[in-house]
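Dear colleagues,

As part of the handover before I leave the project, I'm documenting each prediction I ran so the next person doesn't have to rerun anything. This entry is a single chain, and its sequence is reproduced below.
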Amino acid sequence: MTIKLSSPSYGELEIQAVTRVLQSQVTSMGYETYMFEQELKQYFGREELNILAVNSCTAALQLALQGVGIKHGDEVLVPSLTYVATFQAVSALGAVPIPCDVDDECFIDVEDAESRITHKTKAIIPVLYAGIENNINAVYELARQYNLYVIEDAAHSFGSKNTILRDSVFCFSFDPIKNLSCTSGGAIVTPDKELTDRIKDLRLLDVIGDTERRINGERSWDFDVKEQGWRYHMGNLCAAIGRAQLSRINFIGNIRCSVASRYASELNGLPHIRLLPINYETAIPHIFPIIVNEGLRNDLMQYLLSHDIGCGVQYKPNHLLTYFNRGYSLPNTEKLYSQLLSIPLHPMLSNDDVTTVIEIVKEWAINI
């Protein structure tokens, strides 16, 4: 049986949550969505935070950008090493995502980002790849210097003890294989009440005041719309699953951290590979990428697959995609793209699965 690269973890609590909502006959946005937002606030432990549940992290990013005023023709700095959703969230507004290089830890290269700033640059999106945020202070310093908005793509970082301490705008993902899953979903988290109030309507087609009515089981019949809105809200069904997952997040997080810690301990120092510097005492890992010496990544990939071990490349750089190619090279990103390989990390892995992955990677590294 193949050891999967990633997998959700659903159980009896999630089944009960789905059943509860289906029996209520109210599956669209309403009380469950409201309660999920309130329970997220309790989880983060900061009363001043505002939470808006939406249908994906892509929607969260787009709404956050629109909320701070990004418009057609504006430029937004984005590390090229990210899933294409980050770039699509920018271009959906008619803005231009500007691909930036990354450093050796897969975090946006601040010096390269600075070199790409023009009079059109209005924002920067640091992507917390694999939960890494080691150079985040430099991003905020750059933003202060050039008066840029910062929107953090925290799709990989739900559960990090450091991320939510910053007074910024965070966009989380709750898709099936993330640290917390709603099957499909995301959230915008920020202490900025004015921004929250603006986005709250935008996620509901900009129908003014619709959130409050839906929470009370009502609908808007006589309403106003003041700007372009989107159907990006999270429904009760997904929110109920999220609530069940949130009640299990410590269990799910402990498994992820345990697996990642074993990998970090037993794979560190092997020939031909290096690991990213992630602190598993403060972060719940979403993926476990290893960096393989140049020219050997595909060999290791095929070796793992031949032993029924799932693996993947996260991600193809966006500046290499036709739609986002701006005609320049990003050398470190391209080098890392040829070296990165993610190995299995999810709550459904058994101890034997983890042992097998470690043994096969060691076997390859020692004998190559």
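The radius of gyration is 21 Å. The beta strands are 50-54, 75-79, 96-100, 121-124, 149-153, 169-173, 186-190, 273-275, 288-292, 340-343.

All the best with the project,
I.
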